[in-house]
Design a protein that fits this description.
Blueprint: H1 3-12, E1 20-22, H2 33-40, E2 44-46, E3 56-59, H3 70-85, E4 90-99, E5 105-108, E6 113-115, H4 121-134, E7 142-144, H5 147-150, E8 170-172, H6 173-182, H7 186-195, H8 201-207, E9 211-213, E10 220-222, H9 223-234, H10 241-252, E11 270-278, E12 284-292, E13 299-307, H11 310-332
Antiparallel strand pairs: 1-9, 2-3, 4-5, 4-13, 6-10, 7-8, 11-12, 12-13
Helix pairs in contact: 1-7, 3-11, 4-8, 6-7
């Protein structure tokens, strides 16, 4: 089996071959993510909100931004998580929160490894957008959908999208990227990966300097790693501003409404990606990670869960989101 298909199957089907991602992201000076967060937590100077991005300019404290109080936030969130874990249907939880006005950062179980599943589709999106920066004409290329070639057989989706592709119809690259993100469409992912292998998941991970290793025939990622990818988009530090903004707009059109979005007011914009997976032992993993654009106080929230019931896990993500947003609202009052 070619490597690209090993990666694809690892993303979206349990029990088959795959890759694992260990959680190290390095900036120009080669520091690990933990050191970077400690060093930059109080030092990022941002240009200011430009649609869905806030480009990073240089390091230095911006005293004009009001920051969220750390102690009450941590206490409240810890209590919420402990309450969820007392329910036997919720076995494991990981949370990473970051106030995007330069901190603070709060995490719970952030280095716990979970199966990445469809969360990793964001890397194919980033890979394609990087190609489009130098080959904008690629947007007009089309790929014909063939269910015999592009569908996964005997694969169960916990939260299926109701918008299906039409056999024999040709779809543009931009259409497929949108379907892959908004519908979490696995066939769109296969079509895109096959068409431009140089924009693939493994290649993008290497460009971002993430360490990729083989582990237990499955694909794994930590919450801390994934949260760093969202910051890379928000601060436009890998893609251009135009394409970072485009990526976040696609994430903001996600049709999955049972996690982060369910725990927030309907008028709040959320750019997010969810992932779902059955484990080999029959457990379920459900994750939802994104940027919440609360006016004046945008924040990053990434929640990964494991348990026995998909609806209980979705509710757990909603409950944590509600608790987080309550503390954020208190900070800006």
């Amino acid at each position: 089996m070619q490597l690209k298909y090993v990666i694809l199957v690892a993303l979206i089907s349990a029990g088959l071959g795959g890759l694992s991602i260990y959680s190290f992201y390095r900036w120009g000076d080669g520091l690990p993510l933990a050191s970077l967060e400690q060093d930059q937590e109080n030092k990022d100077i941002l240009e200011g909100q430009r649609d869905l991005i806030n480009p990073l300019l240089f390091c230095g404290r911006d005293e004009s931004k009001k920051l969220i109080g750390q102690a009450p936030f941590e206490s409240s969130l810890k209590k919420t998580i402990e309450g969820l874990l007392s329910d036997e249907s919720v076995e494991d939880v990981s949370v990473v929160f970051r106030d995007l006005n330069n901190g603070p950062v709060y995490s719970f179980n952030r280095d716990k490894e979970f199966r990445g599943a469809s969360l990793l589709k964001i890397f194919l999106l980033i890979g394609y957008l990087k190609v489009l920066e130098r080959e904008p004409h690629l947007n007009y290329a089309k790929i014909k959908y063939d269910p015999n070639k592009h569908d996964l057989k005997n694969f169960e989706t916990l939260f299926p999208a109701d918008d299906k592709m039409i056999p024999g119809q040709a779809y543009s690259i931009s259409e497929l990227l949108e379907r892959m993100i908004t519908n979490s469409d696995n066939s769109a992912l296969i079509m895109l990966a096959d068409f431009r292998p140089d924009a693939g998941i493994e290649e993008t991970l290497k460009k971002l300097n993430f360490l990729v290793i083989n582990k237990n025939n499955d694909t794994w990622i930590t919450n801390r790693t994934y949260a760093s990818i969202l910051r890379i988009l928000y601060n436009s530090t890998f893609l251009s501003r135009e394409y970072s903004n485009l990526a976040l707009h696609l994430l903001a059109k996600s049709k999955f409404q049972k996690g982060l979005v369910a725990g927030l007011p309907k008028d709040l914009l959320v750019a997010h990606k969810f992932g779902e997976r059955f484990t080999i032992d029959g457990a379920i993993q459900l994750h939802d990670c994104g940027i919440v654009y609360r006016p004046g106080q945008p924040y990053l929230l990434c929640i990964m869960t494991q348990g026995k019931n998909k609806d209980r896990l979705a509710r757990a993500i909603q409950t944590i989101t509600e608790a987080v947003d309550l503390q954020v609202r208190k900070s800006v009052q």
